[in-house]
Amino acid sequence: MKTKENVATSNTTDKAATVEFRGLRREFGPTVALDGLDLTVRPGELVALLGPSGCGKTTALRMLAGFERPDSGEVLVDGEDVTRVPAHRRDAGMVFQSYSLFPHLDTVDNVAFGLRMRGVRTGERRARAAELLELVGLADKGGRYPHQLSGGQQQRVALARALALRPRVLLLDEPLSALDAKVRLTLREEIRRLQQELGITTLFVTHDQEEALSMADRVAVMHAGKLEQCAAPAELYGRPATAFVAEFVGTMSRIPGRVSDGVVDVLGQRLPVDGAAPQAGEVDVLVRPEAVRVAADADGKARVLATSFLGAAVRITVRLADGSEVKADLPAHEAADLVAGAPVSVSLPERPVLAAERTV
Amino acid sequence: MARLNLWRWGVFGLAGLYFLVPLAASVVFTVDVPGQGLTVDAYTQIVGTGGFGSSLLLSLELALATIAVVLLLMVPAMVALRLGAPKLRPVVEVVCSLPLVVPPIAFVAGIVTVLKWGPEHLSRTPLFQTFVAIQNPDFPVVLVLAYVVMALPFVYRALDAGLRAIDVPTLVEAARSCGASWPQALVQAVLPNLRGALLNASFLTLALVLGEFTVAQLLGFRPFAVWIVNVSGSQAQLSVAVSVMSLLVTWLLLLVLAGFGGRSRTTSRG
Questions:
Q1: Poorest-confidence range of A277-281, A310-314, A345-349, B94-98?
Q2: Taking CB atoms and an 8 Å cutoff, what residues of chain B touch A103?
Q3: CATH number of B56-269
Q4: Closest CB from B170, B177, B269 relative to A92
Q5: Are B96 and B152 contacting, i.e. CB atoms less than 8 angstroms apart?
Q6: Among A277, A242, A230, A276, which residue's Cα sits nearest to residue A258?
Q7: Picking from A9-18, A222-231, B223-232, which range would have the lowest pLDDT averaged per residue?
Q8: Is B176 in Cβ contact with A96 (below 8 Å)?
Q9: So what's the ipTM on this one?
Q10: Does residue A161 sit in the same domain as residue A271?
Q11: Among candidates B174, B229, B223, B163, which has minimal Cα distance to A164?
């Protein structure tokens, strides 16, 4: 009887692969799905491709899988150009968004499908499939058919199937978005655990920022077919490179300010600008809700617009004197007397802030 | 609830009467000969009457050939349609439904014209032999071609229903990412999930070919349906007995097909 760790070691790929996208471009009729995507995924790394729908993240993943051809640019795996290699010789395991198990096969045969295609003998491939099912925690579901399994179980089987051929790259195309919230949480931890145990280079497409931030080594934020920023979750959240990243990842409020000589005037405070400051003049200061301080103040010019209880914190929406709205997270006990309409004062901590061009 | 059940039984009973009364009448007519009492002579005669075996065999051969051709034609076409050009679906649907609109009599008139025109104009070319060969009375290929066209609406509908129930693009992509080539993906991942639809299409085609009369008669061939009509003129009882028997034969064949489908399900499990 093998322990889970042993199973995991026997599955570990000898050497994790490097994946490289170089200047990928793809148009579907009038829409540009990818507009020169460059991205390098290091061996054994889990990179999440994050972006709004239509930003080209799925197209990029499908190009790595071999289901799409780029109009120009190339896909490299371990420095080798695989752009023209057909999908079934790509050596990439894929888990799809929709349940993609073969309905006519039970879980063992589903997992063993790839091995059957490779001509592995029946006994051997069934043993290997059982091993993989154990790895995803479904050792007892071997004889079940897909329609007898829950959504989460189906995706686990799909994961085992994707790993069966010991692929160099694992591709996950929104594998959790069809599942309900609880299952999603446990499965995402499990995928991460497996990925780290196996040390397999993984690309994970998602539109859920929480998923991306909690699972990935690095998150690649995409927008309109281009890479906006690829960085570790903490850096992405704390030091977003562009205004798009700042507003797509987490919640950001824009407060009008005035910049001069790398210092910005905002809410009556003078704060240094983080990173490259825009040209002098009117700017928007970008702030996270947890960085905004709100205090009850009878003379305050700002008014509470709405409050919503989030559990540990309360999110307060405040309208400033100039009409712009700011969101702030306060510990629940501090927010007790801040009801809608209450006069408050708003301030920022004495830290460098992000400033972006004013958008109207 | 009880009222609903009453209704159900009522409808069921009426439908049963509608189907069973003519059938029972036929059976009674064949076995109850005036002056002789109950006898199965009519049925024993069938085997002795010339042409029974050969015409039935011809019909079965035609049915098998038609099923093979129509499935080989339609399955790849419809899967390709799903994968590559979903927008063309309505066009193909209309084309496949045309045989329902064009009466067989008009259809066969067209075929006869072509069969006459062909040899006249092509008598000096090797195509002349082709025209002769497809009209070989031992196995008239031209009938298979005609039946393939006539079966299109039914096969299209059966396959379309089957394809609707599965996500063909995802299944193919899943198979491809598991290392299956295109043909492997189709045969190993898509076809097994279409088994029900393939069986339905085969049922309908089989029933169509076994019962087809117009085209075969007008082209001068003698499959089972034509043979039944030919013997009916002289021996009324015999011809009804043959009809009853052909009904049983069709049922039997359908059961065999269904059994075959059911068995292949269990073997794929092992």
A1: A277-281
A2: 166, 193
A3: 1.10.3720.10
A4: B177
A5: yes
A6: A277
A7: A9-18
A8: no
A9: 0.80
A10: no
A11: B174
